Amino acid sequence: MGVYLDYNASTPIDERVLEKMVDIYKNYFGNADSRTHQFGSNAKNVVENARKQLGSLLGIPSEFIYFTSGSTESNNLAILGLEAYGCESGKRHIVTTAIEHKSILKPCEHLEEHGFEVEYIRPHEDGRVHVEEVLRRVRPDTLLVSVMHVNNETGTIQPVYEIGEALAGKEVYFHIDASQSCGKLVEELQKQSYDLLSISAHKMYGPQGVGALVIKNKNGRNSALKAIMYGGGQEREIRPGTLPVALIGGMGEAARLLQKEYRDNRKRYEANRRTILEVLENSGVQYQINGDLALGMDNTLNISFTGYNSEALMLMLQDKALAGISNGSACTSQSYAPSYVLQAMGLDEQRISCAVRVSWGREIIQTELIKQITKIVKEWQI
After folding, report:
1. Catalytic pick among 87, 108, 182, 331
2. 299 phi, psi to nearest 5 deg
3. What is the pLDDT of residues 23-61, one digit of tens each?
4. 194, 216 in Cβ contact below 8 A?
5. In whole angstroms, how far apart are CA 253 and each of 33, 83, 185, 242, 292?
6. Of 124, 166, 212, 295, which has the fewest CB atoms closer than 10 Å, so is most exposed?
7. Beta-bridge mates of residue 359
8. Is residue 67 exposed (0-12), middle (13-18) or buried (19+ Cβ within 10 Å)?
């Protein structure tokens, strides 16, 4: 099968997390909202412990954390959950970026159909939006500003810290999609100012199918955010449905481990990036890096191999059992459409068609493997 280089789509689950989940499935099988017996109480303890572990990782009180099925649901909740308040208050203006995940863009499109105005800020060619271009669009009727922390396709870190500081204390909700940064940029998130934050377990060595939305109090008041699904009083009536105790416990365990190990992980991300860039530089392959390396995460590269269609390269690497890579978000990969992220950056069509995303984890990538990949690319280019 080769080496897995699509960590931005999903990380493999940590074996220690899996062991924790198996124990929960076997021994904590009660409904966490069952109040009449110890089985329910035991399950609830697992959930609340996980909530504390996530709170510790993020540096926030655990009561701000609401469990969801993942970042897609969290993003939808953060945006659509403010619709009623926006209508009541007359705040029907939203500012976001053109490079957000589809789980941000689609809910925004939905609100546009219901009378909201949404402004989509385009990044510069370095893949980063400018703080001033975001802030100067904030108006008295602005309900929400939503900017991702790290772009899933390019790995570019967005200026959310500066935006958060500027919006702190204002009557504007600031939401961050931290799917790609939670558990990696730990200290940065702990210092970050925001009102709403989305995270997903399967981007941080946890299980698929669970995530969380952080909902902070707004200027000393409870958040105006409302549920977008109905059917029960779970998660303080913000997100109904029986809690998946083992998944939540696994997410908590992943958070606990990452809080201990994120510094060492980061060193390994950096080592892998150095290896890939050094091999590329010495390979004779014609390529371009999409996005500014100085602004990017240490675990992601978006590379255009000149004259080499990205679909052909991915299939060839798969056929030769060398590597699994992608050319964009897993949520849009079935459409084979040009990357809207790279288009928003202003890259030309040819460069976009040659682009692939390589993303890795803490496992060390062997230099020889990267050399094999670049050798295949070079032979094709010749």
Report:
1. 331
2. -115, 15
3. 999 999 999 999 999 999 999 999 999 999 999 999 999
4. yes
5. 21, 34, 18, 20, 34
6. 124
7. 6, 300
8. buried
Q: How far apart are CA 189 and CA 4, in angstroms?
A: 27
Torsion sign across C-alpha atoms 232, 236, 238, 244: negative
Told to judge if 354 belongs to the known catalytic residues of this protein, a careful annotator would answer no
Distance CA 136, CA 56 (A): 34
Residues 194-251: tens digit of each pLDDT:
999 999 999 999 999 999 999 999 877 888 999 999 998 899 999 999 999 999 999 9
Tokens coding 342: 């790279």
Q: What's the pLDDT tens digit per position in 287-301?
A: 999 999 999 999 999
d(CA 366, CA 285): 19
- For the chain, how many helices (H) and strands (E)? 14, 12
CB atoms within 10 A of CB 165: 15
Per residue in 315-342, pLDDT (tens digit) is 888 877 788 898 865 555 555 688 999 9
Residues sharing a CB contact under 8 Å with residue 187, sequence separation 6 or more, in sequence order: none
At position 321, the amino acid (one-letter code) is A
Dist. CA 295–CA 145, nearest whole Å: 21
49 neighbors 41 (Cβ within 8 angstroms): no
How far does Cα 148 stand from its chain's mean position?
Answer: 8
Q: Which token pair is 319?
A: 């056929």
Residues in Cβ contact with 307 at an 8 Å cutoff, skipping those fewer than 6 apart? 286, 354, 380, 381
CB atoms within 10 A of CB 237: 11
SS3 at position 276: helix
